[in-house]
Amino acid sequence: MLVVLGTVGWAVVSNPRMSWDVVGHYLFHPAILDGLVLTCWLTVVTTFLGLVIGIVLAIMRLSSNMFISGMSGVYVWFFRGTPLLVQLIILYNLASLFPTLSISIPFGPTLLSANTNTLITPYVAAILGLCLHEAAYMAEIVRGGLLSFDKGQRHAADALGMTGWQKFMHVVLPQVLPSIIPPIGNQLIGMLKMTSLVSVIALSDLLYSVQLIYSRNYQTIPLLLVACFWYLVATTVLSGAQRLVERRFGKGIAVR
User: Fold this and answer.
1) 3-state secondary structure at position 253
2) Has residue 6 been placed in a domain?
3) Considering the domain boundaries, does residue 254 fall inside one?
4) pLDDT (tens digit, 9 = 90+) per residue, 1-32?
5) 154 neighbors 196 (Cβ within 8 angstroms)
6) What is d(CA 188, CA 161) in angstroms, rounded to the nearest whole number?
7) For the chain, how many structural domains are there in total?
8) Rg of the Cα atoms in the chain
9) Is 14 a member of any domain?
10) What pLDDT, in 10s, does the model give residues 69-126?
11) What is the DSSP string of 16-84?
């Protein structure tokens, strides 16, 4: 296997058509670096928003109220069951369905109104699409963590007279956090790569910046190698950070 991989690797590296000089020329090109920054920003923001929304959805899903639990279930069913690419395209073209977005009092006056094309820019569509999609997966991760918590310990905390906040911080969180950190880290790394889908709505992330350049100079493969290099660098950094966090919180946390 190593011989085969080595042979394939050497064939790629030594191929003059790979145009490694082009790769080196564009590796630190300002447009590429700007796209990389936007990709990292989208990753952090949408993962954070997705986690916040996911926590709310997980709590709703565990509610004894069937209507509230059902709403959360339908949300997760829809956003996990439809492709992210389709969701992004629908959001970006929302103006074709609703030319104007308004907030009004039922049977009363309109309080706020805005042109949908002005409001839903490629950047806004990307943020909304990515975080809403991510929230469905985060909800299941958090729900799984909460379900793994032993309810007997909650009763013991009640017997000690702990408040709701004290129970959460001193009993629930230290035991739930170690089980949800690894999948959340995996989702963060996955989100970094999923941001490449925003290129279809003309947002200048890393992939779209690369596409703009190779559409002018026709150096498709070398430019895609540049994108692959930076995706690998970013995922390697995130993977290292994930391992550090897992090592830090692997045995739970002590909140004082």
Assistant:
1) coil
2) no
3) no
4) 777 777 777 766 777 777 788 889 999 999 99
5) no
6) 37
7) 1
8) 23
9) no
10) 999 999 999 999 999 999 999 999 998 888 887 777 776 777 787 888 888 999 999 9
11) GGG-HHHHHHHTT-HHHHHHHHHHHHHHHHHHHHHHHHHHHHHHHHT-S-HHHHHHHHHHHHHHHHS-H
